[in-house]
């Protein structure tokens, strides 16, 4: 695709939307390869090399004619006259030779110009195997006719259509899943075996051919209130859209491709696919995600209840030391509750740590210093962190900020700063460096006193975060604590 983009950007004199049209073509031409049972190659003229292959697609309904990919290579001398003629004439050209490209290959080669607003933008060559001596089946003949109709629309700028769905939802129908061909009135002219099977799973037991697809789907739908508003336009083949129908617990994805000539619509293709299992799994994931969010919400509520009980108990304590111990426990529980509150608000099991720490950082400093003025500064970006990192890291930061205020500043005004730095370590893994600094009294005699809070910090850093921690004096006074950890989930 890099070659594709570079060639179009550097060598083409395109109008508005032309490059996007070719990108849309390559994004959807697997459909043509499967219908034509042929390899497709997209050619574009190079000012010095002649025609260069921009893209190559192989059929999933047949074997490939080329086992090596020649994207970026110049065109073979035997094929160039055919492609050049198609470029100039803006008509589909067919080779009279079946041995083109190799004497031991019997293939039919056609060159189809992709024309938009009167200008040839590229040429598609189709390479179909003719070595089989058997007569083609009705399915093959119908598929090849559908491929020809779509390629003919390409020479008129009518396909691909910008109105076609480009969403990434799983379950988009493919040729092998089932094909229906409709006439201009929406009557089924041909239904592939897989297409018939898909509608039988919905509950239709009659032959599809000769019947109106709109009437068939109407009879199958039990709850008309749940009908997608796009359904009538899809099952009649009037618009190039996608929709789904559901009946008897079976979900069927439908995609319509109107067939047109220069003046009018003359029919349509409808691709269908049974997506019941995909939708069932998606529903299970939605239910699972909702359950996980509810668990986090309830854990958060329970932890907040525990914090409230600790607060009530601390107010009844006569011992100042006991009261401080309960207040510290309350802060730790509240920090864990904050992480669960964040997890309960999203689907992913990761946390936007910057949003979480923005609240907690200021709160930790304020709670630890109700009688003194402490400023907070924050730099850098933590980014998204796995939930198994978020909880211990939030606790560590809470303890270190509390320690910096209570012991580093010691009832005096000052500033506590928090800095985060994401980087790649020597092993190539994502890593995080965190620094907490204060401009207080500094380390006593160069050593740090090991209280319960710092014991908790060391345990969390080494066992839960798998990182390292280091205390150093700060230039100009104060203390700097550096944390370093690789962001590799351990759960």
Mean pLDDT: 83
Distance between the termini: 37 Å
As residue ranges, the low-confidence spans are none
General form? elongated
Write the layout of secondary structure elements.
Layout: H1 2-11, H2 18-28, H3 30-36, E1 38-46, E2 50-57, H4 80-89, E3 93-94, E4 107-116, E5 119-129, H5 138-155, E6 179-183, E7 188-191, H6 193-202, H7 213-220, H8 231-235, E8 242-247, E9 250-260, E10 265-274, H9 276-316, H10 320-343, E11 350-352, H11 353-368, E12 374-379, E13 384-386, H12 387-409, E14 414-424, E15 430-438, H13 452-464, E16 468-473, E17 479-486
Parallel strand pairs: 12-14
Antiparallel strand pairs: 1-2, 1-5, 3-4, 4-5, 6-7, 6-10, 8-9, 9-10, 11-13, 14-15, 15-17, 16-17
What characteristics describe this protein?
alpha+beta; Beta-Lactamase; five-stranded antiparallel sheet; 13 helices; 40% helix; elongated
């Amino acid at each position: 695709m890099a070659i594709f983009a570079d060639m179009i950007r550097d060598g083409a004199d395109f109008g508005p939307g032309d490059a996007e049209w070719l990108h849309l073509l390559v994004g959807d031409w697997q459909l043509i390869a499967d219908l034509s049972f042929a390899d497709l190659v997209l050619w574009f003229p190079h000012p010095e090399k002649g025609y260069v292959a921009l893209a190559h697609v192989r059929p999933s309904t047949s074997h490939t004619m080329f086992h090596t990919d020649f994207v970026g290579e110049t065109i073979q001398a035997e094929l160039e006259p055919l492609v050049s003629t198609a470029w100039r004439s803006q008509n589909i050209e067919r080779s009279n030779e079946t041995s083109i490209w190799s004497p031991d290959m019997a293939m039919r080669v056609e060159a189809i110009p992709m024309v938009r607003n009167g200008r040839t933008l590229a040429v598609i060559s189709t390479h179909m195997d003719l070595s089989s001596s058997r007569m083609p089946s009705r399915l093959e003949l119908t598929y090849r006719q559908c491929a020809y109709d779509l390629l003919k629309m390409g020479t008129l700028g009518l396909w691909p259509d910008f109105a076609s769905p480009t969403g990434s939802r799983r379950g988009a129908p493919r040729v092998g899943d089932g094909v229906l061909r409709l006439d201009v009135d929406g009557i089924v002219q041909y239904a592939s075996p897989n297409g018939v099977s898909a509608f039988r799973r919905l509950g239709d037991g009659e032959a599809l051919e000769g019947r109106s697809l709109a009437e068939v789907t109407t009879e199958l739908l039990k709850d008309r209130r749940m009908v997608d508003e796009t359904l009538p336009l899809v099952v009649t083949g009037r618009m190039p859209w996608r929709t789904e129908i559901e009946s008897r617990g079976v979900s069927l994805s439908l995609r319509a491709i109107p067939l047109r000539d220069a003046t009018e619509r003359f029919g349509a293709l409808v691709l269908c696919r049974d997506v019941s299992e995909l939708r069932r799994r998606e529903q299970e994931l939605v239910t699972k995600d909702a359950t996980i969010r509810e668990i986090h919400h309830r854990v958060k509520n329970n932890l907040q209840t525990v914090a409230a009980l600790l607060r009530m108990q601390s107010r009844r304590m006569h011992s100042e030391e006991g009261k401080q111990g309960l207040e510290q426990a309350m802060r730790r529980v509240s920090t864990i509750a904050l992480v669960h509150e964040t997890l309960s608000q999203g689907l992913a099991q990761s946390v936007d740590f910057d949003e979480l720490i923005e609240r907690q950082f200021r709160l930790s400093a304020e709670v630890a210093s109700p009688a003194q003025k402490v400023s907070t500064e924050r730099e850098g970006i933590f980014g998204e962190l796995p939930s198994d990192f978020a909880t211990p890291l939030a606790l560590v930061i809470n303890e270190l900020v509390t320690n910096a205020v209570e012991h580093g500043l010691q009832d005096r005004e000052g500033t506590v700063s928090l800095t985060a730095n994401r980087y790649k370590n020597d092993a190539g893994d994502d890593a995080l460096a965190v620094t907490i600094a204060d401009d207080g009294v500094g380390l006593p005699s160069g050593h740090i006193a090991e209280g319960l809070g710092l014991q908790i910090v060391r345990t969390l850093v080494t066992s839960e975060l798998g990182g390292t921690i280091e205390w150093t004096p700060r230039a100009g006074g104060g203390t700097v604590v550096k944390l370093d950890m690789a962001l590799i989930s351990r759960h």
